[in-house]
Design a protein that fits this description.
The protein is an alpha/beta fold. The protein contains 13 helices and 16 strands. Strands 4-12-11-10-7-5-6 form a seven-stranded mixed sheet, sandwiched between helices. Strands 1-2-3-15 form a four-stranded mixed sheet.
Length: 397
């Protein structure tokens, strides 16, 4: 795409809040997308862990088309069947008993933060409002969510931040114990730190968070916005550790590309958000819920999660093999189809090299290769990625 054509299309009218690559994606199908020149790419990003069942999955497309002929929107002053059915599916397949619907991950986190404060106020008094979070975490871009986020780069220029958030190092039980106290309303954790580098939390740390919260009467909130909906090989990542939260935040892959978020909680916890305490105009929109219902059905009624485990194991194995030949690879880590390669030094042109080779991947600051492919990914696509990486290794050595 040249600058003139981009200007004619109106790209110059879009706020400059993203560092975009100079390609325009026109369509997608399965694990592939095509740009305006007709070039085909294997998408190892899934739209940043969103289109986990592939682009334009035919069953999801059909569900949205059917719902579009019935009802787009009616507001939450009334009940709708798609919203009720989706809530039932989420509760039947998790610890949850009540669901609040919104439009994004950040909104799901905001709802959880408000719920935690309301819970703290009503169970232990008005001074119980603090939330313990982790350094290196990421919870969204709203003001409260970036305050919860343990990365200063997302906070600079937006001060003063919201009061009442404390950050401790991941997997440091002692620091977590020291931070918890009578003011602690909740402990907010990602089972695997996503934007923070795909860093899995240890089972012992997750269990300690549960034990500490139970001891002081606080909530455990798991941010499963990126790790949930099958990304790690289980429906939810916390299931691997056998640790159950009180509240869980979902979004991203929930509707495979349509905007929806959900805050799932135990009944006695969600009861603290009564009528008028929280709302969302578009939350639980019928179109988005129709898509999410089909996503849930595919995840729970097929063998797709076993496929995630198998393909994730193959991807990690191939990357570890590459690391034996590429000393610049510091570590390969992750679970299921949420995998990262951390480098010893930055490779700022790696993402562009992969694009040249027909591969879309996330390479923040050139130091970390994050791979979040659709669950439909085949071994041949993984081999294609490894060939491109090996070519880059030889060129960079």
């Amino acid at each position: 795409m040249n600058n003139d054509s981009g200007t004619r299309m109106g790209f110059d009218c879009i706020a400059n809040t993203y560092a975009r690559f100079p390609i325009t994606i026109q369509r997608g199908q399965g694990v592939f997308v095509w740009d305006e020149q007709g070039k085909k790419y294997v998408d190892f990003t899934s739209g940043i862990a969103v289109c986990s069942l592939g682009h334009c999955h035919p069953q999801i497309v059909e569900a949205v088309k059917t719902q579009a002929d019935r009802l787009f929107h009616i507001s939450n002053l009334y009940w709708t069947e798609p919203q009720a059915k989706l809530a039932r599916l989420l509760c039947e397949n998790s610890f949850g008993e009540k669901v609040f619907f919104c439009n994004s991950g950040a909104e799901a986190v905001e709802a959880a933060i408000k719920l935690a404060r309301k819970f703290g106020h009503e169970t232990r008094g008005p001074d119980c409002y603090e939330i313990i979070c982790l350094r290196g975490s990421f919870h969204g871009r709203t003001l409260a969510a970036i305050t919860a986020t343990g990365q200063p780069v997302y906070q600079r220029g937006f001060e003063p931040l919201v009061d009442g958030f404390t950050h401790v190092p991941p997997n440091n039980i002692h620091a977590l114990e020291l931070a918890a106290g009578e003011r602690t309303a909740a402990i907010l954790l990602e089972p695997i730190l996503g934007e923070g580098g795909v860093i899995p939390l240890e089972t012992a740390f997750l269990q300690a968070a549960r034990d500490i919260a139970d001891r002081i009467g606080a909530l455990v909130i798991f941010d499963e916005i990126q790790t949930g909906m099958g990304r790690t090989g289980n429906l939810f990542a916390h299931e691997h550790a056998g640790v159950t939260p009180d509240v869980m935040c979902l979004a991203k892959a929930l509707a495979n590309g349509l905007p929806i978020g959900a805050t799932v909680a135990k009944d006695e916890v969600m009861a603290h958000l009564g009528p008028g305490t929280h709302a969302s105009t578009f939350g639980g929109n019928p179109l988005c819920c129709a898509a999410a219902i089909r996503v849930m059905e595919i995840l729970t009624e097929t063998d797709i999660l076993e496929r995630v485990r198998q393909q994730g194991s193959y991807l990690k194995k191939r990357l570890e093999e590459l690391s034996r030949w590429w000393p610049d690879i510091r570590e390969v880590r992750g679970r299921g189809l949420m995998v990262a390669v951390e480098f010893q030094r930055p490779f700022p042109d790696l993402a562009s090299h992969l694009i040249e080779k027909g591969i879309l991947a996330i390479v923040p600051q050139g130091r970390l290769l994050r791979l979040l492919p659709p669950f439909l990914i085949e071994k041949e696509h993984i081999d294609m990625l490894l060939t491109a990486l090996d070519e880059f290794r030889q060129r960079s050595s």
